[in-house]
Amino acid sequence: MAKTLADFKAAHDPETIITQLRAELTEARSRASLEDSLMALIGNAAESAKLAKPPEWVIKPQADHGSPGVPTLFLSDLHWGEVVDSEQVNGMNAYDLAIARKRLRHTVETAIKLCAILDGKMRYPGIVVALGGDGVSGNIHDELIATNEQNIMPVVLDLFEHLAAVIKSLADAFGKVFLPCVSGNHGRDTRKTWSKDRNYTSFDWLIYQFLARHFAGDKRITFYIPAGSDAHFSIYQTRYLLTHGDQFKAGDSIIGPLGPLARGRQKKLARDASVGKEWDVMLAGHFHTYIHMPSMIVNGSLKSADEWSMQQNFPYEPAQQALWITHPRYGQTFRMP
């Protein structure tokens, strides 16, 4: 039906147009509020999906060729909240929350000092901090429930506060921080580690989300928190895969964890290569044994020897965390555990 002149005037009346625009604006605001509410519910998941690739400063070499490259500090197996009784390990170690805080602070301060020795001008574009899981001791065994210094919730809050301070210190020292994150097995709140929803049943993942929210307004700091158990990222031309390592089983008293690690690395590489996601270096924790090879870096622990490792007759290893430099031309260079 053809519109009349009155209909045309009504449709183009200024007051009518303003009313329609107001209604559209109200609807748009309502949609935006709903999106904000959904983001609050799902946390950092949507933002994390956008960060599957590191920020540009991690990939593109800076113009100043005097820079040694990008340092990586690997933080894993902190076992926050666990207690090691010195008398039960022949006096070779002790561990509790006070010692854990002191060792973490020492680790970060030493990492900054070592990088300053390597380049007094601190010409680093930033630092990568790989968070490899087992941040908390957890309640996964009866003996841990009985002997942990505090229960899991206070421990989670305490570790969050100290990691937040660590990240801020590193951002102040290096200018920028990129943090790929994976969960471990000790932080789970299930009887066994789940394959489905592994991260969503992990206090490690929850701490990472707290940290990502905490630093959401700080443009110096970028998180990558994948939904799966592995994180792929590159530093210049070197491609890394970060995993916790609890998927690798068995070993023996002669070669220790090298056997399962080598087999696990090969399986992961074949799996990823089949879909065009090849990588060069695997980063793993879990075994509390520092190993640095061209194709594999296995982290130590902040805890060091405990009652279980004593009864298993494992050799003593001091508390240590991996630190190294990735150069745009030469790949891994300086190793500074």
Notes on the protein architecture:
This protein has 337 residues and is of the alpha/beta class. The chain has helices spanning 5-11, 14-42, 45-50, 56-59, 97-118, 142-147, 152-174, 203-214, 258-273, 307-311; strands at residues 70-75, 127-131, 177-180, 221-224, 231-235, 238-242, 281-284, 291-293, 296-298, 323-327, 331-335. Strands 4-3-2-1-10-11 form a 6-stranded mixed β-sheet. Strands 5-6-7-9-8 form a 5-stranded mixed β-sheet, with no helix packed on it. β6 (238-242), α9 (258-273) and β7 form a beta-alpha-beta unit. α5 (97-118) runs parallel beside α7. The radius of gyration is 25 Å and the shape is globular. The chain starts with a helix and ends with a strand. The model has no long low-confidence stretch (mean pLDDT 89).
Compact description:
With about 325 residues, this protein is of the alpha/beta class. The chain is about 40% helix and about 15% strand. The protein is built from 10 helices and 11 strands.
